[in-house]
Structures are given as C-alpha cells and as structure tokens.
Amino acid sequence: MAKITKTNRPRKQHRQPGIEAKMKPAPEYIKAGYLPAGKLKNKVALITGGDSGIGRSVSVHFAQEGADVAIVYLDEDTDARETKRLVEEAGRQCLLIKGDIKKGTFCKKAVEKTVQQFGKLNILVNNAGMQFPQEDVQDITDEQLDITFRTNIFAQFYFAEAALRHMQAGDCIINTTSVTAYRSSPGLIDYSATKGAITTFTRSLATNLAGKNIRVNAIAPGPVWTPLIVATFDEEKIKSFGEQTAMKRAGQPSELGPAYVFLASEEASFITGQVIHVNGGEVVNG
To answer: What is the DSSP code (8-state) at residue 78?
Structure first.
C-alpha cells in the first residue's frame, strides 16, 4: 500500500463527506493479494456510505466474495461510479442509490429499491457517518447536533427497521461504530456520543433479533485513512493522523474490509451483539 507520511498527505478538503478521487496517496481499498473464497455467494448487501473509504472497501470485498451490492451515498458521484466499476469488475451487480440518509423516508425507499432490483436483502451495513470537530463543547450548535445524530444513529434505526421487513433467518446487520465510543475524544464529543449509541444499539438489537436468527454486530475502527479525515480535520491534525496508535500509523480501508466479510459470513454464525476492534493497537474498555 502507498505509505502515508507527513510530506505526502493531501491538503484538507472543505466539504463533507470528502472525495476519495482527490486524495493522494489514495486509500487502499483491497490488498493486491486478497484471495476470495465465495463466502457471500449470491448474497445481496446494502451498504451506506459505500462509495468511498471503508464503505468502498466493504463493497469491493463483498463483491469479491460473491455478493451483489447496493451502495447508498450522498452526492459523491465520481467515487460512487468508480466503486460501481470495481464491483462489476469482480463480476457482480451494483446499484447506486443517491440521497440523504438523515431522512427516514429516503432510507426506506433505498431498501425498497434494493429489494426491487435484486429480489432480496441479506446483509445491511450501516456505515455512513459525519463528524464536525469542535474543541469547545459550547461551539456545538443545535444544527450540528441534529446533523450528526440524524446521520450517524437515526439513519441506522431507519435502515434497520426497513431492512428487517425483508430479512430472514441467517441474514445479518453490521454497524460501523468507532474507537471513540470506548475512549475519550474531547474534540469529537457529539460524534463519539453517536458512536456510543451505535454500540449499544448493536447489542440491544442483537438480543432482540436473536430468536429470529438474524445477527447484529459492529466494527469499531480506529484512525483510518478515508475522505472523512481530510474533509474534517485541519492540516496539522492530518499530518499526525494515526500516530497515537500502538502501530504509529493510520489504518487503510483494506484492513477493515475483511472484518466485515467475516461478520457477514457463515463462519460468524454464533457471533451476535459483538464489536470487532480494528484500531492499530489502541487499548479500549468495554
């Protein structure tokens, strides 16, 4: 993978969610030596934020493993078209669904479009998220709070509710939480609060659905090199991004994708209500 150093990091982008096509070095979405094993053959997955970053990695890994993919994204058309190309290059179908996940009506329509296109829905990946760093809690406006919570946690409720109308025994939901749910993040108070909510949502929904044999788990990434980073942090933060981990670097999306594959696969059939931490060695509690 391209090494991220202090001298080759891209400049800050000034609009969320950020554009992967403009990042240099570009994030690595799948390792060159990845060997698929048909773990998700003929499955259908809906992935929010699937156009770039961790979402692109999940989309491409799922396609490599045999799944057709529906990608929900806000407005990053260039990134979405490239991810679609990568999914189709793997021999699978890809449906692009553009819209705002803060709106419950859109989330429900996205699920229905997926089922209309593919005839079923086996895997829901609630991955999309936004963050607005603020060093002073008094600078978090009502508008920011509303956007952050509606994007990061309300949307997960909306998608889960709509998806469960179509899911059957053996299907699953995977939510993206964060290391910030497990340690202090003083500059991302509202964001980390949503990630804590996602962790609890995952555990509670998992036990609620266990009797139906629908599994619910989560991934908690540490610092990962994605468009969200260059779209939200200042250039000084970008230069040192990831250095707080035991491995002294940020992760790549390619290092997250296989964890989602595992949780979506039959190999994880006895795992529900759990969180896999992919964070470069950060010590977490809970």
So the answer is: H
Residues with Cβ within 8 Å of 211's Cβ and at least 6 positions away in sequence, in order, are none
Contact 255, 225 (CB under 8 A): no
- Residues 113-133 as b or e (16 or more Cβ within 10 Å = b): bbbeebeebbbbbbbbbbbbb
pLDDT of residue 14: 58
Residue 10's contacts (CB-CB under 8 Å, 6 or more residues apart) are 22, 23, 24, 25, 230, 238
Which residue among 29, 73, 182, 191 is the active-site one?
Answer: 191
What are the residue ranges spanned by the domains of the chain? 40-278
Query: pTM of the full predicted structure?
Result: 0.93
Quote the Cα angle for 174-175-180, to 5°: 145
Q: Quick check: is 191 catalytic?
A: yes
Q: H or E segment at 104?
A: helix 104-118
Q: Which residues in the chain land under pLDDT 50?
A: 1-2
21 with 229: CB under 8 angstroms?
no
Strand partners, 252: none
Give phi and psi for 70, each to the nearest 5.
Answer: -110, 130
Q: What CATH number is given for 40-278 in this structure?
A: 3.40.50.720
